[in-house]
Amino acid sequence: MQRELLDSATAKYAASIFLAEDYLASRGITREAARLARLGVVAEPDVGHEAFQGRLSIPYITKTGVVDLRFRSLNPAVEPKYMGMTGAETKMYNVLDIERAGDYIGICEGEIDALTLSSMVGIPCVGVPGANSWKRHYTRLLADFERIFVFADGDQPGKEFATSLSRELPVTIVQMEDGEDINSTYVRHGANYIKEKMGLNEI
Fold first, then answer.
1. How far apart are CA 108 and CA 97, in angstroms?
2. Same domain, yes or no, for 56 and 111?
3. pLDDT per residue as tens digits for the range 181-195
4. Residue 203: per-residue pLDDT
5. Can you give the residue range of the structural domain that contains 114?
6. Beta bridge partners of 69
7. What is the distance between the alpha carbons of residues 49 and 52, in angstroms, rounded to a whole number?
8. By three-state DSSP, how is residue 177 classified?
């Protein structure tokens, strides 16, 4: 029942994604990438979603459907940047890339950064909501990859996140400049710059 409600809400909010066109353009995310990720805007909230009115809805999609929704402010200067549903457990974002990926995969903080890498740069990538939300079983999910790139935000939590993962997985750390994350780096420098930082500019 919960999966059906989440699928229904995702479809409903996706129909209003045009309301976020300016925001998506500012983040370098195309309409097609947003459609494939089933992003939406909470224009008419479902029951229980009233607190998310006007926010970007970000579904966590698995092979069995939508398992969670997170909501990002389109105006984070005046309200909390991210909100989640009450009682929802932290999950890994964009897990379908684990099966799509070849020999390597990326890990980053945040759904928008993971979407940027996966859809705009062409690097298979999963995301976690924040530096402190890594779970032990995530390590097992990624254990078979020959190379794992961790994209570290250019701040202290980002560096600590990458260092902590390096204790659990054989990772290559791709460090963003101070104050930058994957999305801002992509908007500023483009996809090839990120691939060069990875040493994969021949892709």
1. 13
2. no
3. 999 999 999 999 999
4. 44
5. 96-198
6. 59
7. 5
8. coil
